[in-house]
Model the fold of this input.
Amino acid sequence: MTESLVTLTAVRRLAALVLALMLAGCAAGPSLQEAGRPEDDKAPGADHEQVEPAESIDADVRAGFDAALRHLRAGEYAKGAELLQRVTERAPQYAAPHINLAVAYQKMGDLKAAEESIRRALAVDANHPVAGTEYGLILRKTGRFAEARKAYERTLAAWPGFLPARKNLGILCDIYLRDLECALEQYRLYGASAPEDEQVRLWIADIEQRLGRGKP
Done:
């Protein structure tokens, strides 16, 4: 009975991991400007000025980017990736197209190409929270769990309030690294900022019980 419950818990965490990264990926998408650091997750002293003013973006680049996002939202990942590749060639200085291209490649099952794209995004902005979180997911999917942990920790060092990275680090520690102390810490920090997430509250109680700290 215990084994079945643990397995079910793991499946639920994996489902949450996918959902959290889907939401993180969407955060990069609306426009080339909005691909910068999110205002809602501002770290103390962070600079939120845009690298380029809106009027400086080439109209064809913007049109291509927006068209690519429409294809991605429609599940047409190959077409979206084709358009995003053109955008990244014409405007390599923006992180958002690289991030969304990585997402498209992941959907197509090409993790090698996805990693190359996300590395380009991080070359543009080493502390981009969405890029860092997406990188952690790619590393996890390719079995590099220790590196994935470092990727999440780097993101959280710059953006401690970026909840997708916090939750995904907890899931990584819980399921893949079997580091329950790390998982509990991350879930608690996440839960303090997202008290409405009933699922994580259950995960916290589950780990506390496994560590012998739960209510009898």
